[in-house]
Amino acid sequence: MTMIGKRYYKNGPLEVTGEFVKARSRSIQLSTLESVDFTRKLFFAALGLCGCMIVFGLAFGDLLYGHEIAALVALGAAGLFLGWNVATLTIYSKLTGQRGWSITGTARAMRDMRGAIETALEDRTVRRRQKHKADSAVAADDEEETDDSE
Question: What is the pTM of this model?
Fold first, then answer.
C-alpha cells in the first residue's frame, strides 16, 4: 500500500493524510478544503424528545407506577447520552460549497478527525510558506549572481 503524504489520523474508514481526507466511500483533496464544522445535531433533537420523556415521568409521577417512571427517566437519560456521543463533522471545500460534506460518527472520532484536518491544513500552509521563501531566496541569489557578472 502506498501512502501519499503524512498520515494524521486513521480510524477504520476515516483517514486524514497530507493530501486527502477519506471517509467511508468518499475522499476529498486537502488542498480544496476551506473549513471544518463540528456539531452535535442529534443531541438537540434528543434533548427535546428525551427531555420531555424525563419531565413527563417526573411531572406525572403521582399517576404512574414506579417502574413506568423509572423506564421513562432511564430511556430519556440513555437517549441524551447517545445523542451527546454522536456528532457530525461537516467539511466545506471549494468543491462542496455551502452544502458541505457531512460525516456522522462518534463524537470522539469526529473531534479527533477535525483536529487532524486542522493540523494537516496548518502543516500544508507552513510547507507552502517555506517553499515560497526558499524559491524567493534562490531567485534573489540568481539576481545577485547576474548583477556581479555585469
Answer: 0.74
Q: Give pLDDT tens digits along the chain (150 positions).
A: 444 578 999 998 899 998 899 988 888 888 888 889 999 999 999 999 999 999 999 999 999 999 999 999 999 999 999 999 999 999 998 877 778 889 999 999 999 999 999 999 998 888 888 877 777 766 666 665 555 555
Q: Tell which phi-psi region holds residue 26, choosing left (phi > 0), alpha (psi between -120 and 50) or beta.
A: beta
DSSP letter for 65, please: -
Query: What one-letter code names the amino acid at 106?
Result: T
Q: Are 28 and 95 in contact (CB under 8 A)?
A: yes
Closest by alpha carbon to 22, among 30, 136, 81, 73? 30
Asked if 4 and 17 touch (Cβ cutoff 8 Å), the reply is: yes
Residues 6+ apart with CB under 8 A from 84: 40, 43, 46, 107
The structural domains of the chain, with segments of one domain joined by +, span 7-119
Phi, psi of 31 (to 5 degrees): -65, -20
Alpha carbon of 144 to those of 98, 132, 138: distances in Å? Answer: 48, 18, 10
